[in-house]
Amino acid sequence: MTDLLNKHSFVELGARQRAKALLDAGTYRELIDPFQRVMSPWLSRQGVVPQADDGVVIAKGNIAGLPVVVAAIEGNFQGGSLGEVGGAKIAGALELAAEDNRKGIPTRAVLLLETGGVRLQEANLGLAAIADIHAAIVDLRQYQPVIGVVAGSVGCFGGMSIAAGLCSYLVVTREARLGLNGPQVIEQEAGLEEYDSRDRPFIWSLTGGEQRFNSGLADRYVADDVAQIQQTITALLQQGLPEQQRSRQVDFYLSRLAELDAAPQIDAATVRDLYQGDRS
């Protein structure tokens, strides 16, 4: 009972609070903060109230003394969707981190992914920004780990789920969800019998954090606790680059998918068995 009382939820924190919670005390420095009023020029034209930071918080600081840039997406603003400005902030931060490394400054990156993917009001601009994020992750991870964290409650979907897959390491909680398409999109395209977006146990059994970890699509499965998430990220940063990036294991995943019978309704056990095969 004492342990439960001492836990502090990471999921319940906003993006700025999450970034501050991860960085060493006194090292937090926000880049392009809300007072600079860099926000989407497109939302107000469509009757949507913009946010001064466009729902993305970029902070530099240290984690266990190591130089890090943190990009945190605010899931409570437009479902964590990314448009031109927010996407450019993340891509730019990653690009500058890569430049740091080329100059001898070993800057790592942590991405706090609370996002539905591209912002529909800025579709093409948002897609271009997400593509820039993908390229920047691949560039930076040559030098230092890029750690993705999917905590909840929005999850990580769309083009940013690809960003999660490109990360050197991915950390998830039980509350997390990760998938290319969200439940409502799948239901709309494939029908209720294929995917019931209201069936929460079914959805989490396939795309939830525990399932993604058991399937080998995430590297760490942690409780919704600030201290535990911070400790896990610290350990991964200190561990350095993985022997092989997950996104380089294309042949393994293609061979697994080739064995899948898509006719019957998929279930969690089938997915786990599919991905837990021999990776040699």
From TrEMBL:
Q: Does the keyword field hold Transferase?
A: yes
Q: Identify the domain of life.
A: Bacteria
Is this entry keyworded Translocase? no
Q: Where is the CoA carboxyltransferase N-terminal domain?
A: 1-251
Any Pfam family matching the protein: Carboxyl_trans
Q: Some GO term, biological process aspect, for this entry: which one?
A: malonyl-CoA biosynthetic process
The record ties this protein, via InterPro entries, to: AcCoA_carboxyl_beta, ClpP/crotonase-like_dom_sf, COA_CT_N, Malonate_beta
Alphabetical UniProt keywords = Transferase
Could you state a single Gene Ontology molecular function term? transferase activity
Name the Enzyme Commission number(s) assigned to this protein.
2.1.3.10
Name by which UniProt lists this protein: Malonate decarboxylase beta subunit
The source organism is Pseudomonas antarctica
Q: Give the source lineage, highest ranks first.
A: Bacteria, Pseudomonadati, Pseudomonadota, Gammaproteobacteria, Pseudomonadales
Q: Which gene encodes it?
A: madC
